[in-house]
Amino acid sequence: MSTLVKHVEAIIFCAPSSVTVEEIFNALQESLGDMVNVEEINKAIATLIQKYKKGGYAFEIVQSAGGYSFMTKEECNDSVGAFLKNRSNKKLSKSALETLSIIAYKQPISKTELEQIRGVGCDYAVKKLLDKDLVEIKGKSEAIGRPLLYGTSEKFLDYFGINSIKDLPSPKEFREEDLNEIGDVATGEIDINSKKEALPLMEEK
User: Fold this and answer.
1) Given CB 3.0 to 4.6 Å as the disulfide criterion, which of 5, 18, 33, 62 pairs with 44?
2) Residue-range domain boundaries for the chain
3) In angstroms, rounded to a whole number, what is the distance separating the alpha carbons of residues 71 and 50?
């Protein structure tokens, strides 16, 4: 393995979230100087993707949120999910997850529009999603009162392991049984610590 590939691998490994090619390039320019360029970085990433895809590793490098990150492979999701669920009690309530689903599929959307769809107040749910950085303010509506508009964040993309909102499954792909595999049925809470967890989909209205 070349020195450049090792450096790229180290940066992706230590990054707390998805890291872009530009961020890798800027870091390597500072540490290695002119001996690196974007084309070589892309080749290094391609080499690493193949390395972890072919090897007997429990994790791989995937593209998400416009960059790259290490994630556990799909066949290990159940074990990792169980471990994280037992280790932490940081959860999204069913109400917050429903609100997040609407925001994901209808963004940018105002709180008033959210409440019209859900039929209940969303103040607390929106606040929790903002606190967890899964949702962010995208601007203001042109409607009367100029209400704030909400949309999903980069952390949302990184957490669910997708590269853009376009990668979300369509409502037709959602199955009722998917809901039954998520969270605690008794408490109605959803574990947000396991990556690649299914997101309940809202039917288009």
Assistant:
1) 5
2) 3-72, 81-191
3) 14
